[in-house]
Amino acid sequence: MLYIVDIRSNEIAGYLRGHGGAITSITVHPTEPHLLCTTSRDFTARIYDLTLSPNQEPNNPMWMPGAGPNRAGAAHALHMTESEGQYSGRCVAVLCAGRSGGHQAAVLGSAFHPTLPIIATCGLDRVVKIWRIPPPVEGENPPILREDKPLFSSSCVHRSRVLSINWSAPSALLCIVTDNKLLFDYFACRIGYDTLLTHSAPILLRRGPKEWQEEAGEMVVWQWLGADRFFPLHHPVQDVLRGCTSDYQESSSFKILSSVPLPYPPISQRIPPSSVQIAVCSSPSTDPTTRSNRHDPLILVPLLDIVRVINAGDLAPRASPPFPLDVPEVVEMTKRIRLDEGSGEGERIWQEGLGWGIETGTSKGKSRFDADEEAKESVQAACMSVDRKVVIAVGEQGAIWVWVHKTG
């Protein structure tokens, strides 16, 4: 069940039903706050429009061999036989699950693009996907729009479940409107509108029949190389976007720009599964001359009792792999040698001096990963205001921290 609360009156403004499993995340569109996306353990993501009222009567298409409207319900992205909810909000689109192009496990996060009609999702199946948001359908009781083939899908960015996904693009001046058509601005495309940031959980890798190796999760900044193909410069955005099989099954149209290991405790010391969310704050202020973003995106990484703020420009670029003919055979064989367990050699280490930390001041070095029963609350997610003067963080037990930047 999804509840919409009016914080001004402290009353419920609406409640909606539709998912067949627990809701894992809720994302609000950065420039159109009436749109939101929920992800769930039923392998789907649903997009809601709060300006519409809930659907009360089903309006489903006819599926052969039946002679009437299909009554499969929410599992197949159709209207249920009962009311969708009350007051405000309606599901307008469903990003379906399935082997053809959808997620095959729980969807853990989503992110609207600030200006383009696309949304990115990530999940337990290690896959990151970029979907087209279908345009709205006019009418009193339109059917739910279904998308089962994304514009991009790949399981090669991460080796374990992907916990969060963010666009690093700014939320302004990425597009212009001319003759009632949405066009791309040439200078705006230099800002990185096709760049995303994702992070994954720690993973256990098998080293032998009875040997396992714990590897830390990582934060990856990568570029979607197919953005120019679907959204070319100085061309209007098309209402219908369709990719080919190599786009929605296992695409290679991406490039990893930077990869940073995360300093989370190993799996053997973690009691509950990790649900930490990493956020990206992009400033909307732009240079009037070049019309490009004045400030680099800031990355907020919760680390137990500290929120680490990292400038995206400080991340080291990914090292280019050497050309195979330039590597001597002895060097290549040396790289394949397996190190003894516990040696610590060859492991990627978190950079302690990366960014700056904001302490909660409550954990005193303890966290939920410690065996001590008096372990304090750890930060699970954090976000920053548009003007970058306020940081808000939430803990795993419901605590909320607010930091305000004071000048003078």
UniProtKB/TrEMBL annotation:
InterPro entries for the chain? PcG_WD-repeat, WD40/YVTN_repeat-like_dom_sf, WD40_repeat_dom_sf, WD40_rpt
Q: Tell me which domain of life the UniProt entry assigns to the organism this sequence originates from.
A: Eukaryota
Q: Which PANTHER family match?
A: POLYCOMB PROTEIN
The identity of this protein, by name, is WD40 repeat-like protein
The UniProt entry annotates WD repeats at 16-50, 100-133
Task: Identify its protein family.
Answer: Belongs to the WD repeat ESC family.
Q: Which UniProt keywords apply?
A: Repeat, Transcription, Transcription regulation, WD repeat
| Organism whose genome encodes this protein | Heterobasidion irregulare (strain TC 32-1)
Q: Does the keyword Transcription regulation apply?
A: yes
